[in-house]
Amino acid sequence: MKLLVLNHYVGSPALGMEYRPYYLAREWVRAGHQVMLLGADFSHVRTRQPEAGDQQLDGIAYRFYATPPYQGNGLGRVKNIWAYLRAVWADTPRLLREFRPDVVVASSTYPMDIWVARRIARRAGAKLVYEVHDLWPLSPIELSGMSRRHPFIVMCQAAEDYAYRHADRVISMLPKVHDYMASRGLALHKLQVVPNGITLDEWQAEPPPLREDVAAALDAAAAGGVVVGYAGSMGLPNALDTLLDAARLVQGERLRFVLVGGGHEQARLARRVADEGLANVTMLPPIPKAQIPAFLARCDIAYIGWQRVPIYRFGIAPNKLMDYMMARRVVLHSVEAGNDPVAEAGCGLTVAPQDPAAVAEGLRRLAALPAEQRREMGERGRAFVLANHTYPVLARRFLDAVAP
């Protein structure tokens, strides 16, 4: 079977996020299928930008289209999106001539790629799949406060509704979307939930050594007490202001915080640490994904937080939480959502979101546990991921849902 995946932000372990298309594609290639991933040559979530053109990575064909760089979520990002969609639209004849897919997957976070994907699918006689990462336009409305009448939001809504009407299958990473999607016109027999996951080989091999500044920061933190780690994007949805507020509340106690990552909020958060004299917090630039296991192995508690927003009633599917659990770390989860993998697995403690006092108290409670009890909780988290969230399992579920 030939699968063509449109994912604007597609990455790889060498390029950075997004990782999911790469890991699914790698499993499909291993199973004997052909895969082509279509991405833009510029993405704000990657750590390294590829050259425009065709590449082969681990048997997966990539095609990166030339797009303008941008910063933030303004007009520059919109221009980047449209440049990508125009390029794929124009490339349709070549894609049909050179690849001619059996399945076309629209998977770019924003939904407007459904129009391009359907054009390709119809001309190829292929099955059309719409993969939902986040619910757009609800996510920018509820997370960023965008007006429902904003032209970009109106466009997203039209595309989402179109996708539910015309896709042959809808794959959702979020588990509690059935009522919402049905209200927007989806026949629920088309829907399959395939959450995020992890790749086993990254956790079976010896991880590469940590970057020197990260190793030194962890050494210093461990010397001062219990290490609270965070590894991932630093944007508004990650609620890291709440963690810094909690760090201020526990100054003078034995909790030490080491945060690694990049994103729109990284510079502002770093200024907060400096301006407020948070001596118990160290912030560092992002590390390669391959170093994440080594980083987490040096942490005692792993933190993940969310804003208190209604959008999470549809569930959450965070990559970093899967990494935390695979690393056998006890997790402090600050969330109110339709699902809670930490509670399901029994691998940590869940507290209210955007509540610094609750986060501080949760960290104190976990830090006070005997090390053996924290290890047992961490083992439960790893067992939960191995049973439900490895990419061989998820790739098969995806194929079972979309096979012609």
From TrEMBL:
PANTHER family to which the protein is assigned, alphabetical: GLYCOSYLTRANSFERASE, GLYCOSYLTRANSFERASE (GROUP I)
Source taxonomy: Bacteria, Pseudomonadati, Pseudomonadota, Betaproteobacteria, Burkholderiales
Family annotation (SUPFAM superfamilies): UDP-Glycosyltransferase/glycogen phosphorylase
Domain of life: Bacteria
Listed CDD domains: GT4_WbuB-like
Organism: Rubrivivax gelatinosus (Rhodocyclus gelatinosus)
Name of this protein: Glycosyltransferase WbuB
Location of the Glycosyltransferase subfamily 4-like N-terminal domain: 16-197
